[in-house]
User: What shape does this take?
Amino acid sequence: MTELLRVNNLVTQFKTESGVVRAVDGISYYIDELEIVGLVGESGCGKSVSQLSTMQLISAPGEIAGGEVIFEGQNLLKFEANGPRMRAVRGAKIAMIFQEPMTSLNPVLTIGQQLTEMLVLHMKMSDDTSRKRAIELMSMVGIPGAASRIDDYPHHFSGGMRQRVMIAMALSCNPRILIADEPTTALDVTTQAQLLELMKDMVQHFRASLVIVTHNLGVVARYAQRIYIMYAGRIVESGTTKDIFGNPRHPYTIGLLKCIPRLDEEEGRKLVPIEGLPPNLINMPSTCAFLPRCHYKIDKCFKEPWPGLTSVNGNHFIRCYADTKEKNK
Amino acid sequence: MNQKRNDAILDVKDLKMYFPVTRGLLRRKVADVKAVDGVSFKLMKDETLGLVGESGCGKTTIGRCVLGLYRPTGGNILFQDENITSLPENKLREIRRKMALIFQDPYSSLDPRQSAGSIVGEPLKIHHLSTSRGEYNDRVEQLFRIVGLDPSMTDRFPHEFSGGQRQRIGVARALACDPNLIVCDEPISALDVSIQAQIINLLEELQEGIKELSYLFIAHDLSVVRHISDRVAVMYLGRIVEICKSRVLYDNPLHPYTRALLSAIPIADPFVEETRERIILKGEVPSPLNPPPGCSFHPRCFMAIPDCSQAIPPLRDIGEGHQVACIRV
Assistant: This one.
C-alpha cells in the first residue's frame, strides 16, 4: 500500500507556570492509503494533541517544538499555520471530527450554511451547486428528509444526528484522511455503533483513510487494521490489530487488556488494575514513564533511558527492555 | 456472595414515575413524561442487580425513587419489608440511613470547600452515629482505610485528589452509615480505563467483606454491568425488557433490543469480533413524551410484526428467573 502521511519525531509542548509539559514527546507514525488506524490511550497521553499538531491547530501556550509531518511530499509543519497552503490541506485534504457534536457546530448558523461554507471555500462551488451537494451529503450520512432539514439549526438535531452532520462536513471536500477524535464517546451505545459503521462505510466510499483516536480498545479491535498505543506522550507499542490483541508485548498494553471487563468473559474473572497513576508530564525522567506502574521491570529499566521502538516481530514494535513474552502467561 | 438467602432487601412493584410537562404562564400540565412506567423487580440480600439502558430509559429515575428522593406516581417500593412510598419524611430519613448513593462524577459530587474527612464523616453527624469526637475521628479514619486511602489525608481537599481517589472518597461516604443497599449510578464512567478496574474491584471486595450489602448498579456500559452484577435488567423507554442472570445475558439474550445492545458493544479482541453477530439498529430512541404504541421498541426492531404495535408486551418468565417482554420470543 502507498504511504499517505508520515509523522517523524513530532514534539508538541505547552509552557505552563510550573514548567514545560511535553504532551507529545517525539512520536513517529505513518498512515497508508485506505487504511483504518487506531490511536489508543488514556486521557492526557497526547493522542488528541498529536492529531491537532498534524493539522497545526495548536495555539499558545502550546507549540510544535519539532518534527515533521510529511503529506503528499511536503512537510506540513513548514507551512505557516494560518497561511493559504496550510488552509488548503486542513479541512480539505485532512479533515477532522471532534468528540463533542454539541459544541463543534456553530449554534447561530444553519446546518446548510455550515456545510456549504466548506464547499464554497475549498471546492469553489457556486451557492446553488453547493446547496445541492450539501443535501446530497446529508442523505448519504443518513439524515432523513435532508432537503427539508438543511435550513434547521444544530439545536434541532439530536446528538447522533449532529455527529452525522459533522461527518458530512468532514467528507464534503473529499479528504484523503479523516481523523476522528473520540467520535462517539458522548453518545449512546446503539448510536455509537451506527456512527462507527457509517464512518467505516463512508471512508470506503470516499476512498479515504481513517484515524480513530479513542480510549476504547473494543472500538479499535472491531474497526482498525493497525494500532498505535500511546502512554505519556509517546507511542509504546504499534502493530497490526491482531498483533496487538493476540500477542500484546508492552507492559502497558498487557495491563490495559487485563483491566477491562469483557462482554464475553468467564464468570468470576478478576480484573487486574494498573496500580498508580499516569505520570505528571512536567520534568519527566529520562527512564521509562511506565516504570513506576510496571510489573515487568528489570534493573536495566532504572539505569538506561527509555528505549526507542524496537521490532519484536516484523511490523510489531514496542518500547521496552523487559522480556514480557516469557512472563506474560 | 455465595450463600444467597432467598429474601429480598428491595421489592419494587409496578413502579411508575411520571414528570409533568407544563406550558404557558399558568404552568398548566399538558402531558406526562413517563420516565418509569410499570417496573417491577426484586433485589436480594448480598446481590448486585445491574440496570442498563441508554440515556432517557429511566434507570437513574428508578435509583432515585428507590432512595426516596422522588415520590413515585404509582406502585410500591418495599425496602426491608417496609413500604417507603407512603412514609412521612421523618420516617423516611431514618430508613435512608440504610441506603447510600455513589455518584457518577467524582468531580462535582464532592464539595470543593469541604475537607475529605468531613465529607466522609458528614453522614455520621447527620444521623448522630458517633457519641464523641474521638469515636468520630476513628470511624472516619477506618473508612479511609477500608477504601484504600491514606488516613493521614483526611484534612486535604477534593482538588488534591486524583479522579480515582475522589471516587474512593465517594465510596467511603456511602459506607459511613453501614448501609444495606448502595445505589451506584454510573460510578466509573467518568474515570480513565486503568482506574476503572480499581473502583470495580473495590466495590466487589467491599461486598465480599461486608454482611448484607446489596448493590443496585446503574450503568450504560453492558460489559461493566455484566462483570459486576449477579443479574442484569435491560431497560428501554421506562420499562424493563429483559432480566436474567449475568451469565445468561451474553450466552442467550432473547429480547431483540438486548441482542442489538450486546452487538453494539465491541469486544477488545479482533479474533472474537470477526465472528460476532452485528445488528445495527435503525433510527434513534424515541421521545418518552410520545412513545410508540404497543411495544415501544417495535419501530426500530428487526423482528417486528404488525401485532407488536397492538399491546404492550408483559414481562413473562421463561424459566430459571429469565424474564423477557417480547411477543416474538
Q: What stands out?
A: Residues 1-83+225-260+272-329 of chain A form a domain with the Rossmann fold fold (CATH 3.40.50.300).
